[in-house]
Write a structure and sequence with these properties.
The structure is a homodimer. By secondary structure, chain A is an alpha/beta fold. Chain A has 14 helices and 11 strands. Chain A starts with 7 loop residues before the first helix and ends with a helix. Strand 1 of chain A pairs antiparallel with strand 1 of chain B. The first copy, chain A, binds a DNA duplex through helix 3.
Chain lengths: 319, 319
DNA sequence: CTATTTAATGAATATTTGCCCATGCACTAA
DNA sequence: TTAGTGCATGGGCAAATATTCATTAAATAG
């Protein structure tokens, strides 16, 4: 049933995809699918469930929901954004990433459909990871995908929120990981690290990116930097005292979206934030906790595009 | 709730889209949606149904099989087939038989899994041989496997593309070989051959077959009939002049799938092609060279099922 | 203002789906 | 070979979904 390499695993996915097609596209009931595929009804159900679990089934809504359009327009005006995408919130789970992840994946797909080779720069974090998971497989080796920062801790261990590798894999493009820790121990080590030829090349690519997609981190007790163990509590307190409101690829900024001149930022190993004037720099972020951080980033023109959900958009407008 | 002009219709679609989003993307049940949107459960169901009916919900399958299913559906419609199976092509080897052979074997297996004794009729050729090679061993002596044609040349030597014997061996079923050459020397000899009791019995079985699986031969310089030495070049040219486009079990047909009334067909010793109206007659065929032959066979209802690959399916649809 | 038609609603019900669990089969290690 | 370990299978049942139908509300014409 499968021409290439035949493995039990690929056969299982083939069947799952076939069942899902019959279910979602052709509109069969699971009973009919079972008969057509010669399995029991329960097995058919399992196949469909597998296809959903393996993310083979992608659902999208082809309708601009009025309320979301209104919010997007209002935010575009408020922050002078180049692009703004609002997805509906689930009232019960307003911080759900799935919706924005799909929207971001569609945006990304639009860029990567181009026949010209594009450079895509990606940050890290849960939102980015969720976005890449929504991304369909395609074959577009003309593009280059580059990481804006490392995901290693000082001891060399890595967080799992890496988006570059899996996106590159799905796109079939070459990728440029960022082979540095998130933070250097001091400015001197940083200079040394940045001197490496490969690193210089990667950073240069980041500066030329046609499309940059980043997450936004808040700076309170639930801050990704703190939760993931990059920054100890004492330093978090110092940063808060210095007015830290949010961070993008670890660069910490204040409530106006201006990078803070502090010891912490002097150790940040990430690529410099692109000037969001001439290139598209889009943030994906959701949740009340990130409110101040999103507001500041937009105000300070650290990003010129925003993908968020209804609930967050309403809070932003109320600010 | 809606930007731009407010009409009852657009509000209805907005709600439908929102409900569909909560259902398909956020994974709510219709009960939850009803509570969240403040409507009854039935209304929520209707909203979701509306969104589907209005085609606001787009589902796609991120798996090679998805494309295959689309093609199968299109071909089923185009040729009014009873069944159509498309396997993914290996882009590097678009004429590889392995994929379709596995698919055909699975189809065959489905029939042979039945506890009732079935009659299976088989043609010859590389595709059939490959199919049988993919067939697992089983013990189902209740079935009968019968050959639709011989594989002897006039001198009594045999081509190796015999499927009946090895399938019967793998299934553990009784088999009925076709003890005649492919071609008689003339109509008189043919009548004589067909008079044999065993042959009459075999042909009768072919007519009752529950499932008939055949290959399709093209009629150009790469024709199996020519390559395997059944037909000399001069006769091939005559047939081509008479409009021969393809052959199934050596019966030669024109570009509309109508058997050609000619000296050659008068010598063909194979069992008559089953009327593909009431019985399942499935062809396995792959490759650009067979395009016209496949198209004609389907057009002329010589077969009512097709197993091929993605590349061939695309070419057929483009015709 | 009323009669008539149309569309929307929710109750009742039929169908479909999701899940748990006992069973059995295949594979592994001793 | 045998006991053990997983893992797929299908029965059974509860949950969720779709459909039908009678009723009511709204819209429109007279």
């Amino acid at each position: 049933m499968n021409s290439g390499r035949f493995t039990p695993e690929s056969a299982r996915l083939d069947d799952a995809a076939r069942a899902a097609w019959l279910y979602y596209v052709a509109g069969n009931t699971q009973d009919e699918i079972a008969r057509k595929m010669g399995v029991s009804r329960q097995s058919a159900q399992r196949l469909v469930a597998t296809a959903v679990a393996e993310r083979l089934v992608k659902v999208r809504l082809d309708h601009p929901i009025g309320r979301c359009m209104d919010l997007a327009e209002a935010l575009t005006k408020k922050y002078a954004l180049q692009s703004c995408e609002i997805v509906p919130s689930d009232p019960g789970a307003p911080d759900l990433l799935t919706g924005v992840a799909i929207a971001a994946a569609i945006e990304l797909e639009r860029v990567l459909k181009s026949p010209e080779g594009k450079i895509i720069a990606l940050g890290t974090g849960r939102a980015l990871k969720a976005t890449v998971e929504q991304f369909p497989r395609m074959t577009s080796p003309q593009h280059r995908i580059v990481s804006l920062l490392g995901n290693m801790m000082a001891d060399g261990s890595a967080t799992p929120y890496n988006a570059t590798i899996s996106l590159a894999e799905r796109v079939g493009a070459t990728h440029y990981p960022y082979p540095l820790p998130v933070l250097a121990s001091d400015a001197a080590e940083l200079e040394n690290l940045h001197g490496q030829r490969a690193v210089r090349n990667t950073i240069a690519l980041c500066g030329q990116a046609d499309f940059t997609l980043v997450g936004i981190g808040q700076m309170d007790h639930s801050a990704p930097l703190f939760v993931d163990g990059f920054v100890p509590e004492t330093e978090m307190r110092e940063l808060a005292a210095a007015g830290a409101t949010g961070e993008i690829t670890s660069w910490v900024y204040d409530s106006h979206g201006v990078l803070i001149d502090c010891a912490f930022n002097a150790r940040v190993a990430s690529a410099p934030l692109p000037k969001a004037a001439d290139r598209r720099v889009v943030a994906v972020a959701v949740g009340a906790a990130k409110l101040a951080a999103i507001d500041a980033a937009c105000q300070g023109r650290l990003v010129n595009g925003l993908i968020t959900n209804e609930a967050t958009a309403e809070l932003l407008l109320a600010k």
